[in-house]
């Protein structure tokens, strides 16, 4: 992101080309959602999340949504070709013309190669791939601390305060989602590491990978990311 100027509100702008094209990688529980919001605010670009796009297409009953629905309902990975089509359609929209933040894409080397082709055709460059690095033990600790009320859905976190015997809002029973139980979390992390390791090596080889330790307050992590990206 050479020849950048910083506006008064902290937004980075590079005259004559897209402001910002970034991939955000991170395991479940790494704080990707929070940090994606921080980067979107700092660089004034849309947050493009494959999960959000898939859910929206399914809800709207689009052709892409109908194709993806069967895979999502069976718990299978949506095929590379379909995901690539969804991303290609999204980044062709006007708001992505000044750059974008990709979250959840690419997840495979085939998707990474397809993204390079998309960017080349749009005469855009990938500026950086930010990896939120957090040890598995810390991720398990964070995720397994999440609890919900069965009746009203209120969130609880045992790291921030001791869990009450019942929901403080409605008196309902607290429970833990299957996805947040330790065995499931460890399986999710194993799948993530298997998927992401080749991408980390791939982008490291291209000199694009930026490792950020995802431990500390969200504000501190966000400032660290922005400081590093401003120097690229």
Summarize this, please?
By secondary structure, this protein is an alpha/beta fold. The chain has helices at 32-43, 50-60, 63-74, 80-91, 109-121, 136-143, 182-205, 218-230; strands spanning 5-6, 12-13, 20-25, 47-49, 99-103, 128-133, 146-149, 155-157, 174-175, 209-213. The chain has a five-stranded parallel β-sheet, with helices on both faces. The chain has a three-stranded antiparallel β-sheet with strand order 8-7-9, with no helix packed on it. Strands 1-2 form a two-stranded antiparallel sheet.
Question: Mind explaining what this structure looks like?
Answer:
Helices cover 45% and strands 16% of the residues. Mean pLDDT is 87; it is low at 1-18. The chain is built from eight helices and ten strands. A hairpin with a 5-residue loop joins β1 and β2. With 232 residues, the protein is of the alpha/beta class. The radius of gyration is 19 Å and the shape is globular. α1 packs across α8 and α6 (136-143) crosses α7. A five-stranded parallel β-sheet has the order 4-5-3-6-10, sandwiched between helices. The chain has a domain at 18-135 and 191-230: Rossmann fold (3-Layer(aba) Sandwich).
């Amino acid at each position: 992101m050479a020849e950048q100027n910083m506006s008064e509100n902290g937004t980075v702008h590079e005259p004559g080309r897209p402001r910002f094209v970034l991939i955000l990688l991170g395991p479940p529980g790494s704080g990707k959602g929070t940090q994606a919001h921080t980067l979107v605010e700092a660089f004034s670009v849309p947050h493009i999340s494959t999960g959000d796009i898939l859910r929206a297409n399914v809800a709207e009953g689009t052709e892409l949504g109908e194709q993806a629905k069967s895979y999502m309902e069976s718990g299978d990975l949506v095929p590379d070709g379909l995901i690539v089509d969804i991303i290609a359609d999204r980044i062709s929209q006007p708001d992505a013309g000044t750059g974008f933040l990709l979250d959840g894409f690419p997840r495979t080397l085939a998707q990474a190669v397809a993204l390079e082709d998309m960017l080349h055709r749009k005469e855009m460059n990938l500026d950086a791939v930010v990896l939120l690095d957090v040890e598995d033990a810390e991720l398990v600790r964070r995720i397994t601390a999440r609890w919900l009320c069965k009746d009203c859905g209120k969130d609880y976190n045992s790291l921030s305060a001791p869990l009450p015997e019942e929901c403080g809002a409605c008196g309902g029973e607290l429970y833990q989602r299957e996805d947040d139980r330790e065995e499931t979390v460890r399986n999710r992390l194993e799948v993530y590491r298997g998927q992401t390791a080749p991408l980390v090596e791939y982008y490291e080889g291209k000199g694009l990978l930026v490792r950020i330790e995802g431990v500390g307050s969200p504000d501190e992590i966000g400032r660290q990311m922005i400081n590093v990206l401003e120097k690229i």
